[in-house]
Amino acid sequence: MRSRSLRAALGAIPAWVWLGGIVGGSVALLALESRAVRFPIHFIDELVYADAAKRLAAGSAPGLDGGAYGYGLVYPLLMAPLYRLFTHTTDAYAAVKLVNAAAFSFAAVPAYLLARRVARSGPALGVALLTVLLPARAYAPLVLTESLAFLFFLLVVLATVRVLERATVKRQLVMLGLGAVAIETRRQFLILALALPLMLAVAAAMERGRPVQVARRIASRYAATWIALATTTVGAVAWSTLREGSLAAGLGPYSVLWRSYEPAAVARWAAYHAAAYGLTLAVIPLIALPFGLATCLRRDAPARHRSVGVATLVLVPVFLLQVAAFSSTPYALDRIHERYLFYVAPLVFAMLARWIDAGLPRARSAAALLVAAVIVALPLLLPLHGLVNKVVDAPVLYALGYEPDVATHNSMPSSFQLIALLLSAFLALWVFLLRPHHGFVLLAIAATTLALVDIDVHTQIARGSRQLETTTTGGHTGLRRDWLDRAIGRTASVTVLYLTPPPTCATRNADTLHAVVAYLRLAFFNSGIRRVVEIDPGLAIDVPVESAALTAGGRVLVHGRPLVARYLVTDARLELAGHRVAHDPATGLTLWQTTGPARLLHLPPGRSIGQLVCGSPRHSPDTG
Q1: CA dihedral of residues 536, 542, 545, 550 (deg, nearest 10)
Q2: How far are the Cα atoms of 3, 11, 12, 475, 610 from residue 8, in angstroms, in the given order?
């Protein structure tokens, strides 16, 4: 009796209250988790977006150290007011992480609205919960586009579903406008230029009629979309050709992906990502996918069901093929990229909700058994080693113990594969054990699994952040991370001058790594870095670096001309002609103010200048 009363009381709470609790709880938890991530871990991407936001806040064009930007502008434009509002970049950094947390969490709202079209409010709320528990929540503490892009992508899908239900001109324009915003947030979404027309065509083709009638229906019903897409395409081609010389060049950093692809390689990487995707979604939703789709795409299915089904039918394979194609190129570094595939997960969750709401039809059939067996066995498709390098690229595989760096390869199953198989089999088993009216338990099991994975992924992200900062500072506290801005203000222009240790330096590799990470820390938490100059180039860093030479008198020449900069940052062991403004013991960097051409003092006679920076600067006599 009491349990019935409790269920009745919980059922009386409006769905919007539950949804608000899911969003609010997610924001609060992510904000708390973000406090443990005090240092960016995914360079160079985080530096690119933070630098773009700082430059936009200062009223200048984005572009790291004078280089071209080439990425979407929506994310840095939304972050720029934070860097303008807060005096210190460290405070703006904390605010950016909070905005990311809110953006990721609010993605539960369009996810719920999509699921609500195919299921009752209970299962739809389960979809909202699964959405905020995706391992991709680990990206919220990072200055990356993923969290905001996730929200915009789901809004585009929701707008497209509304167009499929009733294709008014207004709805089509909203869909196209949101699509443009999504693409300008994350260029990966250029695939929507293919996927959106494909969804419209598939939906119209599923209606009865002869091919000619279907073609006319597609042309007339979505005329506003075709006109807008044609106009945009012609404009983009003309702009890229006239300004950049070719359409491919207009893609900026992504122009290298305008190439031919090997079908066999794409197929292999599609299999790898399908194997990883089952684990990313806690197996159960992927088992439910074909059965939920079947109920949505029936001839007699309501238009709301069919529209979400069409979106799922098109977007899931399109994104899988896109990621597989990218991974087949040399630029993907032979890695699994879970971070590019999680966007369509709420659509898969919606199919699970539909299946549950329909009473789990065919849950104990031979077809269900076959689907479950294939998905459980998918991890066996993955090579034993080598597809995971960073927790950011593949958080779930990393959390499950996939071995990224193993020298000896053998044919025996790895511990990862055994764990993955056992976990997949355990999760799949519930599909066959539960009765139809207990389908909500599947949502609970999937949510619990994702939550447990999230804990480990967050721990890995926080640990990586601490380790990278320790690599930079060696555990020394030093000045505040925005010490440069505090010393000379955020509008001053600063040049960074590096000297690479010679090959004879026993600690050359460690010194170079320290120099790279120290620069990244300096540039991320300060606003004035405008130029990087290096004597004897050797830094492996993805920012524009100018090569410099040193005269016998210590003058620094760039392109044959004296280097002139009012403020210069150097290794503490290099002394410049000028005034020492500030020094950070944690990184071993010193800020100098000069009044003329840059000149190094006290050069060692008969000794390589590079020997001055051999060894950790934190232990030099200057820094104690």
Answers
A1: -10
A2: 9, 5, 6, 56, 76
What confidence tens digit (pLDDT) does each residue in 41-95 have?
887 889 889 999 998 998 888 876 556 677 889 999 999 999 999 989 999 999 9
Q: What is the CA radius of gyration of the chain?
A: 27
536: phi > 0 → left, psi -120 to 50 → alpha, else beta; which? left
Angstrom distances, CA of residue 459 to CA of 29, 37, 452, 529: 14, 10, 11, 32
d(CA 451, CA 468): 26
pTM: predicted TM-score of the whole model, two decimal places: 0.91
Phi, psi of 328 (to 5 degrees): -80, -5
| pLDDT surpasses 90 at 314 | yes
Angstrom CA distances, 351 to 166, 357, 436, stand at 21, 10, 15
* Residue given tokens 């031919």 in the structure block: 260
Q: Which uninterrupted H or E stretch holds 494?
A: strand 494-499
Among candidate residues 543, 547, 544, the one with its CA nearest the CA of residue 498:
547
Q: For 231-361, list the strands marked E by DSSP.
A: none
Interval 574-601: pLDDT, tens? 888 899 999 888 888 899 999 889 988 8
Helix, strand, coil % (nearest 5) of the chain?
60, 10, 30
